[in-house]
Design brief:
231 residues, 5-stranded parallel sheet, 7 strands
Length: 231
């Protein structure tokens, strides 16, 4: 220890410095943890300043159409994970999504959550929804967003489908506060992020378009999830 500093004082200073370094490391690590985990799992890739806007639960007969209008005005392609039930009711909206370059994925037929006792039903709902979407668009469905994020990796080989989760969740389904939703997304925006929203609420439509405007100003390019996963 330095001259004039007691052993106990020196040890205390060393402990304080070590604690400070640990604090910085832990805070930085926990802020980046979701993205680091996704990268480690091979779900997103580092590099360009791209970000994906995704929507679950639709299509809604009014709100999804409004959202599509806004995205078209801004030249943005998004990814829509639709339920077979709603796709069947509104095939014209699915057809429009496809024609305007959006990626369409599977969100089961009735928004069922996978459990230990309903695997066959869950799988059948995915197959049924794939068939509904294919009949409308003429293309196979490759991507699935399992409701509540519950998934069985065995289905990836069985159905030749890729699960897509998310890195940014503003919980737009439980809030009508547009400003709150917008801030939640923008504050967490990162390269190769995947934003989870729901095109079943008017507040989400407004917030989503405000998010697009703000992040485009920050230099982000909105892409579909396949560009983040595999480009």
């Amino acid at each position: 220890m330095g001259k004039g500093i007691s052993y106990k004082t020196g040890m205390a200073l060393m402990l304080l410095a070590a604690t400070a370094l640990l604090y910085v490391f832990v805070n930085r690590y926990t802020e980046e943890l979701p993205e680091m985990e996704a990268l480690a799992a091979g779900n997103i890739k580092e590099g360009e300043k791209k970000i994906a806007l995704t929507f679950d639960d639709g299509p809604h007969p009014h709100y999804t159409s409004q959202l599509l209008d806004g995205l078209k005005e801004r030249g943005v392609q998004a990814t829509f994970f639709v339920t077979g039930e709603h796709a069947q009711m509104h095939p014209e909206i699915i057809e429009r999504m496809h024609k305007e370059g959006h990626l369409i994925g599977n969100h089961t037929y009735s928004h069922i959550q996978l459990r230990e006792d309903n695997r066959d039903e869950f799988k059948n709902q995915l197959v049924k929804t794939n068939e509904i979407i294919r009949e409308i668009t003429g293309e196979e469905v490759q991507y699935v967003r399992p409701p509540y994020g519950t998934w069985d990796k065995g289905m990836e080989k069985e159905l030749n489908m890729f699960p897509v989760l998310w890195t940014i969740d503003p919980l737009d389904w439980c809030s009508t506060n547009v400003e709150h939703i917008r801030k939640n997304v923008v504050s967490k925006a990162r390269e190769n992020g995947i934003i989870l929203m729901h095109d079943y609420y008017p507040s989400t439509v407004t917030a989503a378009l405000e998010v697009v405007d703000e992040l485009q100003k920050q230099g982000y390019e909105f892409v579909t999830v396949e560009e983040i996963l595999f480009d």
